[in-house]
Each structure stands twice: as C-alpha cells, then as structure tokens.
C-alpha cells in the first residue's frame, strides 16, 4: 500500500482505548498514595505575572498563588501539546489533587492526597486548563479549554499531576515535553479609595452613595470595572457629585472636599474695575466670596461708568455677578 507524505493522526487500538476508559472510570475522587518523577514549581509574586515552564509525562506542577488574592479568581494553565501526544490522543491524563500530606518540594517524589478531577489531553495543539479559586470565576468552558473544580486548600497551592494512562504507546512518548504557560485569572474588579474632607461629625453629618446605593466603608471599596457615580449628601454641606472609573485590579483614588452651605458669590469684570460688596471694596475677585443669606449689593466702577446690582442670596447657592462692557457700531448717511 502506498503511503502519502502527510503524517496521519494515530488511532489508538480498541484495547488501548478500553484500558484508558477503564482507568478513567475507576478514578473518582478518593485519597491515595502516588509518586511523581519531578515537581515543577510555579510561584507568582505579582498578580500580573506570567510564567512558562516545561513538564514531562509523570511530572507534577506545584502552583503557589500570590499573597494578596483580592483580585484573583483562579489560575490559567495553557498547554502547548507536542505532536506525539496529539498523535496518541487521550494517552496522557492530568489530575488535580487537594489535601496533600505535605507541601510539595523538588526533593520529594512521594505524596498522599485526594484526587478531585481527572481528564485526558485531547488531540489538539493546545489546551487551556482553568483552576478556579473563587465562586465568581467568570470564564466558561469552550472546546479548547476546561474548568476544574475549586480545591479546598488552594491557599497552600495548586497541585496538578500528569500521568500516562494508555497501554501500547511508543516508549518515546515517555520523553514528551509539555510547554506550560501559567498566569493568574483576574476578577473584573478594582477598588475605590475615597477620602471626604472634613470627616463626618455628630454636628455635621453626611451620607455617601455609590451608584445610588449607600455605603458605610469607602476607604477601599471593591467595585466592578467601568464607570460609577458618587454622591455625598448632607444638610450641613453642599451636595457633591462625581463620576469615576474603576480599572481591573487597580485602586482609583478620589478626594472630595466638602463646602459649607453658606452662599457664595463670584464677581467677574474687566481689569481696572473697582468692585464694592455691601460698600466694602474687594481687592481680589479671583476666588468666590463667602456671604450670608439675605440681600447684598454689588457696585462696579469703571472710569465714569457705575452700576449697582442687588443679590438675594440663599444657603447652598452660588451667584455670579458679571460686568460686561461692549461697544456698538452704527452707520449714518
């Protein structure tokens, strides 16, 4: 029979497939002693870190999580599958363990733990394995990935073991190498660090609302990513409104300086104008001026031009008094 130049994918024999199926059927979760050839450590120092390692068949990964898991919902393991494992598909299994009898290290090959998940590597060039550590893990399964159960002791680390589960495979398959890239999966959340000045007192209280919901603790408030709305409401201060954005796994700082409810007046006029408020000349009009409730008079004097305006001020309001000097052009025959 003439063979083409294209390499065909191997079809395991019925006997090999039967052994693999029987193996898979008999490995529901239970505690067991087992041995690995080598421990491959993966340690994350930062939540944005990405680490690539190589693992052989019968090796195991020991994944240490970052100390701060506030924004971490799981771990992604992307496997680059070598051609010989693709050819002998379902010949290699990966297993997730929990409740190990000791913390894995590179000098120890013998362990005792509870196996909570097992599956075989399919005939694809890549496979993404997700190990959730949070119930709000948002990534779903697809044909090129799989989601494992949440280990009960994930804070100690994640233990994933590889193992040959098919008989009749070539000896060379034992030397196959998986390239694995690991990274934390981040939640779609960030934090708001809000400071409100002055602080609330018994005499002068205020309430803080985020997206129309009241909040009591807002120094490090965890929120979903995207745009949010803040309001500070008080009978003693002016109400303040802000819009802010939360970025993934980052802290957004926001400061709100509260203003008293006493009315303010802004004075706008051309340079060299003399300005009088209630008979007192105002030297600087660059900032709003605090006034009391009631009527106030504003007088502008520019050369020979003089004008007086009256303002009826109420608490919580800001008033702007402007002097506009204009010129007109007319044409006569």
Descriptive report:
The structure is a single chain. The N terminus is likely disordered. The protein starts with 13 loop residues before the first helix and ends in an 11-residue tail after the last strand. It has three domains: 173 residues; 69 residues, Immunoglobulin-like; 59 residues, no CATH class. It is mainly beta. Strand 20 and strand 21 form a beta hairpin. 5% of the residues lie in helices and 47% in strands.
Q: Overall pLDDT, averaged?
A: 88
Distance separating the two termini: 112 Å
Number of DSSP E strands: 25
Give the count of structural domains. 3
Quaternary state of the chains = single chain
What characteristic shape results from the CA principal axes? elongated
Give the biggest beta sheet. Answer: 6 strands, mixed
Helix/strand order, N-terminal first: HEEEEEHEEEEEEEEEEEEEEEEEEEE
Class per helix and strand makeup: mainly beta
- Beta content comes to over 45%
Measured as a percent range, the helix fraction is under 10%
Provide the low-confidence segments as ranges: 1-8, 14-23
List the defining traits of the structure above:
5% helix; mainly beta; Immunoglobulin-like; 47% strand; 25 strands; 5-stranded mixed β-sheet; 333 residues; 6-stranded mixed β-sheet
């Amino acid at each position: 029979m003439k063979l083409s130049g294209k390499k065909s994918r191997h079809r395991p024999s019925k006997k090999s497939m039967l052994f693999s199926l029987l193996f898979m059927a008999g490995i529901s979760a239970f505690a067991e002693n087992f041995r690995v050839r080598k421990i491959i450590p993966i340690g994350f120092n930062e939540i944005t870190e990405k680490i690539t390692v190589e693992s052989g068949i019968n090796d195991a990964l020991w994944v240490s999580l970052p100390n701060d898991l506030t924004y971490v919902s799981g771990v992604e393991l992307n496997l680059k599958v070598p051609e010989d494992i693709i050819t002998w598909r379902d010949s290699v299994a990966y297993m997730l363990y929990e409740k190990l009898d000791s913390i894995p290290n590179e000098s120890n090959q013998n362990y005792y733990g509870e196996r909570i998940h097992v599956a075989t590597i399919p005939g694809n060039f890549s496979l993404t394995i997700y190990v959730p550590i949070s119930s709000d893990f948002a990534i779903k399964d697809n044909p090129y990935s799989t989601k494992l159960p949440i280990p009960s002791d994930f804070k100690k680390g994640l233990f994933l073991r590889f193992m040959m589960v098919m008989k009749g495979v070539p000896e060379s398959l034992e030397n196959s190498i998986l390239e694995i890239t690991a990274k934390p999966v981040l939640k779609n959340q960030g934090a708001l660090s809000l400071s409100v000045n002055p602080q609330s007192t018994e005499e002068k209280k205020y309430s803080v609302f985020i997206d129309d919901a009241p909040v009591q603790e807002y120094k490090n408030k965890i929120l979903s990513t995207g745009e949010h709305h803040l309001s500070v409401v008080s009978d003693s201060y002016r109400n303040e409104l802000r819009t802010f954005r939360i970025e993934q796994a980052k802290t957004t700082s926001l400061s709100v300086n509260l203003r008293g409810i006493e009315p303010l007046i802004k004075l706008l006029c051309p340079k060299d104008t003399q300005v009088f408020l209630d008979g007192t000349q105002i030297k600087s009009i660059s900032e709003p001026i605090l006034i009391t409730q009631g009527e106030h008079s504003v007088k502008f004097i520019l050369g020979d031009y003089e004008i007086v305006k009256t303002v009826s001020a109420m608490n919580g309001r800001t008033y702007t008094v402007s002097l506009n000097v204009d010129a007109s052009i007319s044409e006569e025959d």
